[in-house]
Amino acid sequence: MSNVIKLHNLLLNKEISARELAEKYLSAINCCNPDLNAYINITEEDAILKADIIDRKIAGGEDIDMLAGIPMTLKDNISTKGTETTCCSKILEGYKPIYNATAWQRLKDRGAVHLGKTNMDEFAMGCTCETSVFGSSKNPYNTDFVAGGSSGGTASAVSANLAVYGIGSDTGGSVRQPASFCGCVGLKPTYGAVSRYGLIAYASSLDTVGVLAGNVTDAAIVFDRILGFDPMDSTSTPDFSACTFDFLNKNISGRKIGVPKELLERASGEVRDCVVKAIGDFENMGCEVEYFSMPSLVTALPAYYIIACAEASSNLGRYDGIRYGNKSEHFESIHHMICKTRGEKFGDEVKKRIILGTFVLSEGYYDKYYAKAQALRFELKSQFEKVFEKYDALITPTSPKTAFKLSQVQTDKEGAFNADLCTVPVNLAGLPALSVPCGKDSLGLPIGMQIIGNKFSESHILNLAHKYEEARGDFGINNMGVRLDV
Amino acid sequence: MYKLTSGFETHVELKTNTKIFCCCSNEFGSEPNTRCCPVCIGLPGAMPRLNKKVVEFAVRAGLALNCKINSLSYMDRKNYSYPDLPKAYQISQYDVPLCYEGFVELDSGKRIGITRIHIEEDAGKLIHNDAEILIDYNRAGVPLIEIVSEPDIQSTEEAKEFVEKLRLIMRYTEVSDCKMQEGSMRCDVNISVSDTDKLGTRTEIKNMNSIANIQKAMEYEFERQIEVLENGGSITQETLGFDEKSGTTYSMRTKEDADDYRFFREPDLLAIHISEEDIERIRQTLPELPDKKIKRYVAELGINKKDAELLIKYPRVAEFFEKASKGVNSPKKVANFILGVIFGFLKSETLKEEFKLKITPESLKGIVLLVESGKLNMSKAKTTLEQMLLSGKRAEELLSNEDLGGFDEDMLLCLCGKAIDTNPKIVADYKAGKDKAIMALVGYVMRESKGRADAEKVKEKLKEII
Known about the structure:
The complex is a heterodimer of chains A (486) and B (466). With 486 residues, chain A is α/β, with parallel strands linked by helices.
């Protein structure tokens, strides 16, 4: 089932060269990307160059990592040395980082072949990829629908097999929700499990670097290679190491799974039915399932928006056009230049969140909003702690609904607001969670199930998801991208 | 009668090897933008990591200022936008600083309270050219401590003493150079006046870079505020600048348009934990502080207070003095050589500060020992020391055997006798009451002894004989 292992063996057995593989993916990108708008920057030369290096290693009989020569993509907020990294914002147009993000560096060191940067909501603010300056990414299952967001381009690319896997970021659901919309696996690790160094910050206390892949095994293989302490990120956890891959096939019989009613109730009928059916599969595998109530899950959403926007207002203050990126022309003073640049180069959603974030932190309002949100966050964390004394994992829908139609959220504000309902509590509590496809709706759009674990229990949730994936059987592919079965 | 009330916020640059949140060198005066990295210029995605040495330095400063240390403190973001501030926020400490509740004791015994000391990063520097504004980010991320005092200062004299003491303590603890002219120590002065027990509205004079200016600005502001009140006006709470040329203060901004810094916890850094053991370990590294030194010099080394104060004014001088006076009978002689002879060579404050000499403390000690043993007289010792300071040569190289031959009692008696015998007229003059005449006899003995005799002793001996 693992594409990575399959391709790794093909490379080792010299049935295909890394270069051929890269070319195959690049030509698929050329063919499908105009429909999907998943990639916004294709790094063809680099990919070929890297693939050739791997081919020489294989020819020389050198040991190569399982990810060596495997084509992949990076969300456009992961810093890539020498390659434009824009967060899909006009304000970072032309910005080429002088260093690599740690997560990317770790993959690069293992021979990853980078195909290019993928589309995202501007500064990861959005749930449809439609706030991107490059326009929306489309859903490979139906291009009239969005790929989700903010890692929409990455999910679209992975789902259409225009990359074997992708690295995204998840602040409130930005890996899991598009994975759910696009029918692929999305893993959001525990806060601190993967270094954030080089991930362009949206909301630092919530941001995580995550993995999007075609299946659970591939997600585990990639996660195992990016996790672990990084001295460049003080919030990365010392002494955390794991080999989730070795854990995938453990028997899950007897595991205790909790299902919070609040989130299930707020999902659409089709999504709810589908997730309930999947929960049944876990029961069939010997898991003990219990439905329970956790009201604080619902109050998490406003708390999330307050905290995320507050941090964003601070994190995005540095984009003034002075040191990097893009600045306005014709200005009268430094102050005018900064205001004009920010006014012209930030999109509306970003401006909205900066203004909101500035407001909730300002004198006289801090206690009313930011302090309250922090209190809710604290309360939520302690409730999760109690819940995980009882359960090994929680299951919820990843998103209350399947993919939006293109432009739908422009009028459906509430739908957009609620898109992250099930995913944000996880970020507020710093927990690991993943989304795994569990069915399709009547339009054929994928439905995702979210499995939430206790801190640093990635092995457990990947194990559960892998077992479920086996029980579920083939999810069925869309008609895009590279066909690996041929 | 109007009273002045003043509190100080003093920024001190810490002289750690590297910056506060990255590995860039913390060095003053490099080519612009050569001491920079993704972290200190705030590139997207770069993250700070706290330099442990900064915490240690700040705790050392805190302990030296009698502060309590918070076992748990936090870093916070202070948000404001200015081109020299690369991230548009300064990482600082807001509600829980590293150190709190300390004091500086003035000579009068009065204590100026230290409210808190916190650590933070410095910003870059704008360089205004004719046609453009350039930015040098070398200073961005340079570690600072901000020392906030209580409004306990009630005169410009107290202000001067407070700043001088603070500065000296920072230098003795080797936390900072505190070079005010280079900006490694700068003061914001809060000042208010009142003729009742209630404090008046305060103004804040920003970025004072010399003690003289602090006094001038305070005097001016004191008078200005009184004048405003006397004319029936009221004081506006505002931030002021000080114009050196005119000696006046001017308004920079009022309270209404003050920034709202929107402080919140820095999510990219962890809380700072300091254990009792850490604090004790740092306490052990504290040197003897200046006030204690003065007391010891007076009580144990027989130095007068004024000289002691001069010696401790420069940490290197004090160190030199202490080394040179180890094992001598009269540390006072060492002090006299330093303050009399050596300081004569070091005309400026900077030279005294640096105290770069061609001689070692041991060679000064050598001279003093020769004097103490009677082998060398004072005036010869002084000229020899001067030559040593100029040439870097050792005393042995400059003094002949004859110089060092000593000059014993017999020889003294003999030459004094000779002087009296050969100069009967002068002796007669002296006897007739011309006290000064004896100096001619002393001169004779000195010539005869080729300068080896001790003039004081000769004089005594001559008087005795006559």
